[in-house]
Amino acid sequence: MTYITKPRIDLPGQSTNKIGLLRRDYEGVLSTLCAGCGHDSITAAIVQAFWELSIPPEKVVKLSGIGCSSKTPAYFISGAHGFNSVHGRMPSVATGALAGNRDLVCIGVSGDGDSLSIGFGQFGHAVRRNINMLYIIENNGVYGLTKGQFSASADKGSKAKRGEINQWKNIDSVSTAISMGGSFAARSFSGDREQLVTLIKAGVMHPGCAILDVVSPCVTFNDHLGSTKSYLYTRDHYHPALETDFVAPANEITTSYAEGESTVVELHDGSKLLLKKADSGYDATNRSKVLRYLEQQRARGEVVTGLLFINAELPEMHLIYGTSKTAMKDLRFDKLNPGSLALAELQSRMR
Amino acid sequence: MPESRVNDFVLKIATVNGTGSASANSLLMKALFRMGLPITGKNLFPSNIQGLPTWYEIRANHRGYMSRSGRVDVMVAMNAQTYQRDLAEVSPGGFLIYDSTWPRERELTRDDITVLGVPLAKLCNKHFRKARVRILMKNVAYVGVLSALLGIDTRILRALLEETFASKTELVESNLQAINLGYKYATDNFTCPLPVRAEAMGDNKDYVLMDGNAAAGLGCVYAGATVGAWYPITPSTSLMDSFNFYCNMFRTDKSSGDKNYCIVQAEDELAAAGIVLGANWVGARAFTPTSGPGISLMSEFIGFAYYAEIPSVFFDVQRVGPSTGMPTRTQQCDIMLCAFASHGDTMHPLLLPANPGECFEMAVAAFDLAEHLQTPVFVLSDLDIGMNDWMIPELKWDDGYRPDRGKVLQAEDVEKLEKFYRYLDTDGDGIAARTLPGDHPKGAYFTRGSGHNRLGAYTENEDEYKEIIDRLMVKWETAKKLIPEPRLKPAKKKTSIGIIAYGSSDGAVLEALDHLRTEDIHADYLRVLGFPFNGKVSEFVEDHETVFVVEQNRDGQLRTLLILETNTDAAKLIPVLHYNGMPIPSQCVIEGVSKHLDTEAA
Ligand SMILES: Cc1ncc(C[n+]2csc(CCOP(=O)(O)OP(=O)(O)O)c2C)c(N)n1
Ligand code: SF4
Ligand SMILES: [Mg+2]
Predict the structure, then answer these.
(1) 3-class SS at B75?
(2) A136 phi and psi, to 5 degrees?
(3) In chain A, what are the domain boundaries?
(4) Which residues line ligand 2 (CB under 6 A)?
(5) Tens digit of pLDDT for each residue in A274-318?
(6) Distance A138 CA to ligand 3 centre (A)
(7) Which fold has domain A23-244+280-321?
(8) B159 touches chain A (CB under 8 A)
(9) ipTM exceeding 0.90, yes/no
(10) What global pTM score does this model have?
(11) What is the sign of the dihedral through the CA atoms of B145, B146, B148 and B153?
């Protein structure tokens, strides 16, 4: 057997979404990751979020680099085209895919090794171009697939399974994305399904590059005492800075909050993000305040989660380039080819 | 008495980089072109923005020879820094023109050439006020001197200036004044024209002046490419400049200003390659122009595209390496690199243009091949073709052309299938159908660089892996039928001597063949237009006792490929190599061939 087909069990009472699809229509082949791996929980959250958003599977492209995390696009939305690229280079392939077809819903899955070491440059430039995608970093502090070496996201002082202590300061994808001028930066935890599903939905609907860093423990190489990316440590230091509600376009915001307790961010398609502050005074739209806050919490060793920064007004790549509304791949050849007369005419100036 | 050389001379202009001599040189080129002379212009420039020496070399030849000849009949020595070496380079009987505003050291002279001093700076300083204008006009003034000495029609110069500056009449006037200053000084002081001179011989109306990068960029527009990704590198940069320029001209919606193209200046060549793969994967024609160092960086992705079968087009405008090497000089040094780019079992089709006309045609062909074969395709040009000024027959376009998109299933085709399998070859040509994202839920498949089987699923099974990698060899056989055939130029007499060359070495070989014939050496010439080689290449090698392989690199890379791919006896392939960074002169071929034949005869 070369790959494992998931048995499809129709459970009674499973409901369909707006386009008549079941939750299982958003699943992929069976995962081959270690039992208990955080990455599998993220996969489940992706399935849930895309099903809830009722996105037609064929409109989705799912891309990744290399790593345990990057294997996961095979495990969700089997009706979407997938692209498991090379180590650290998922962002460039996503850039090209979106350059060629801006109508696609693009999700990229990467790891902390994939994005913060070998692919740090491409990560930065995806943020800088603000390409319209959800970019998930499944963050376990190690290189899972090559058996547990520290990654650049490992905290200074964190202990490896064999006892080695990490001496290097970590690179934080969230504050890096914000300081580079990114439009959306969030952090979550693979163990908090509810928050994760909401943030995935927000990231998919955000009209730009949504960076979502998800702490996702590696049970095999980084879940021991002394690790700062274990289930235990993350639960102990888990600190939601704000709660987010995703409100689909036609729906009304039903709950009411006291003044100053919440912010509403409207997205271009009419959907809304309701940000409820857990920490008083937290403002996810104020870049410098957010960065200061993150730095403070980092010093305390807190794992700050939530939609930590958003600016839905920043233009994405196509708006900056001024490319046509029609996807490049759909432009008709006669619109692209100037023809023989034009060729003769332009050459008259080359004599 | 200097020999008479009418419409057969080399004019070389030595200046300092950044002093604005380019427009003066282009004026000379175009004027000679309009007099009907076959000409080529080669820019021999430094890797520098301002201050280092630079040369422009124009060869006019009534027989149409395009390569460097190794001669210099008229040298315009405007750069004091290189005066000594410029003086030394003039062929016996030739002429040297210098700016006599400043006295020249006595020992710097030669008895076998004629040295003509013109006080260019003095003339211009007297006539023009602004410092920058004086420097620029000094260049235009030497055009005036040359028009008198070489017999260049001043009416053509005036017409060219009027076209260039159109409404800016004061610029036309000042340029004309500078021309007249030079022209008058020359006619007053020297016997004009020189025995080395131009005489009108037609109007070249079926020809144009173009460089290969402009042509290739234009070819991408005509091929319907919509996504271009790149990272700047000499000598490929002007290819994307050209694509951008013509897209701006032809692909911008008049009313909305929307662009029907998308050019991404990537963060590096790795990213450029990734963008090209991503865009082609979703069904847009995408390409990247680069040079050797860029191909090195792209290599991992190139192997991915080969194994996952993603169409992609790479232009390698070759320069001198390894490493940074001499980035503003030319070589044919990446043919091995590109043919086998990436780790593992990989091989890639190459297209080998010899001039800008072929850059245009092969740019279009590259997209067709890449999509038909679902694989990376390389167009290997070089700095000489890409950045120098070539006279070529006017480009033609067939409006009946439609792109070959290869086996791409449309939504309605997918609908009819029970199930779609990405890597299933159903008709034996080694190519499986693909689908595009966004079209149909049943068309979805997973693209991966890891082991996959013919159904498109992950595998580590030895037979399944081998099945795919063997099918890629079937595809390679299909490629052989699609690569343009080599071009044969048979000798006028039956001969056992053959010459094989490709790309920018063509001109040197063609001229050498004529010369060798006068020494009763006859050779059949086969120009290779692509890789994998088609059967005619093997036949040619088999049919000749001695085959000279002419190319511009140290290691004889084309020769190595021929040995690998044709089962020939290596001993009969004689390398004729040129690799100092200057375009190959015909002399190199003449000497390489005749020396070998002499030693064989001895
Ligand atoms: C060019 C290249 N270098 C090295 C590797 C080996 N490699 C595979 S995955 C990986 C690290 C993955 O780490 P991360 O992105 O954190 O993913 P995880 O497995 O932890 O989910 C490395 C170094 C590779 N595949 N390609
Ligand atoms: S090694 Fe770690 S990251 Fe990889 S699958 Fe196992 S638990 Fe997950
Ligand atoms: Mg990791």
Answers:
(1) strand
(2) -100, 130
(3) 23-244+280-321
(4) A 33-34, 37, 39, 68, 140, 144-145, 218-221
(5) 888 777 778 999 999 999 999 999 888 899 999 999 999 999 999
(6) 7
(7) Rossmann fold (3.40.50)
(8) no
(9) yes
(10) 0.97
(11) negative
